[in-house]
């Protein structure tokens, strides 16, 4: 189990680094948007490439940081039933959800998007908009993002199993116990 936990720490470190790094792309998208809007209003100048760059940057931030979001348990959950269950049952729900929902969804999405990326790369396809950007880089973000999400799912699975086995302390259970003391 210690080897798997080491792998989990490596995956967590990679996704933390990538997530923090691509979060800056949102600032770049906002700045590009502001500059593009300003030049359009003041000088009647605009560029489709700048407009497309905004959604390229947002797509990169969203897709690449999805794994970081999973790592921080910041994704949307419906806790109506889950929150009322004992911690051990919650861990089993997370394990089964990862195996039967997250992994198949990520793997199918990666499998289906990869041929599109290859096709767009080989053809050198460019956006239909005048002055638009190449399409393959933004399409490549889909399998990259879902690949990272799959790896983070593996890391989370390893950690949940380690918690159940008693090889890793459960930070959530410890925080809940501490909150009850206060």
TrEMBL record:
<keyword id="KW-0813">Transport</keyword>
<keyword id="KW-1133">Transmembrane helix</keyword>
<feature type="transmembrane region" description="Helical">
    <location>
        <begin position="134"/>
        <end position="151"/>
    </location>
</feature>
<keyword id="KW-1003">Cell membrane</keyword>
<dbReference type="InterPro" id="IPR007387">
    <property type="entry name" value="TRAP_DctQ"/>
</dbReference>
<comment type="similarity">
    <text>Belongs to the TRAP transporter small permease family.</text>
</comment>
<feature type="transmembrane region" description="Helical">
    <location>
        <begin position="53"/>
        <end position="71"/>
    </location>
</feature>
<protein>
    <recommendedName>
        <fullName>TRAP transporter small permease protein</fullName>
    </recommendedName>
</protein>
<keyword id="KW-0812">Transmembrane</keyword>
<feature type="domain" description="Tripartite ATP-independent periplasmic transporters DctQ component">
    <location>
        <begin position="30"/>
        <end position="161"/>
    </location>
</feature>
<dbReference type="GO" id="GO:0005886">
    <property type="term" value="C:plasma membrane"/>
</dbReference>
<comment type="subunit">
    <text>The complex comprises the extracytoplasmic solute receptor protein and the two transmembrane proteins.</text>
</comment>
<dbReference type="InterPro" id="IPR055348">
    <property type="entry name" value="DctQ"/>
</dbReference>
<dbReference type="Pfam" id="PF04290">
    <property type="entry name" value="DctQ"/>
</dbReference>
<keyword id="KW-0997">Cell inner membrane</keyword>
<keyword id="KW-0472">Membrane</keyword>
<feature type="transmembrane region" description="Helical">
    <location>
        <begin position="91"/>
        <end position="114"/>
    </location>
</feature>
<dbReference type="GO" id="GO:0022857">
    <property type="term" value="F:transmembrane transporter activity"/>
</dbReference>
<comment type="function">
    <text>Part of the tripartite ATP-independent periplasmic (TRAP) transport system.</text>
</comment>
């Amino acid at each position: 189990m210690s080897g798997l936990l080491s792998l989990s720490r490596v995956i967590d470190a990679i996704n933390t680094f990538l997530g923090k790094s691509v979060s800056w792309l949102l600032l770049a998208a906002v700045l590009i948007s502001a500059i593009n809007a300003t030049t359009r209003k003041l000088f009647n100048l605009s560029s489709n490439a700048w407009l497309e760059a905004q959604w390229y940057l947002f797509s990169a931030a969203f897709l690449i940081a999805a794994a970081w979001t999973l790592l921080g348990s910041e994704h949307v959950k419906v806790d109506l039933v889950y929150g009322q269950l004992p911690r051990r049952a919650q861990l089993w729900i997370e394990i089964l959800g990862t195996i039967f929902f997250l992994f198949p969804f990520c793997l199918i999405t990666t499998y289906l998007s990869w041929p599109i990326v290859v096709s767009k790369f080989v053809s050198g396809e460019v956006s239909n908009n005048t002055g638009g950007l190449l399409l393959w880089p933004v399409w490549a973000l889909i399998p990259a993002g879902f690949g990272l999400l799959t790896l983070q799912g593996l890391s989370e699975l390893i950690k949940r199993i380690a918690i159940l086995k008693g090889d890793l302390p459960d930070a959530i259970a410890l925080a809940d116990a501490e909150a009850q003391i206060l």
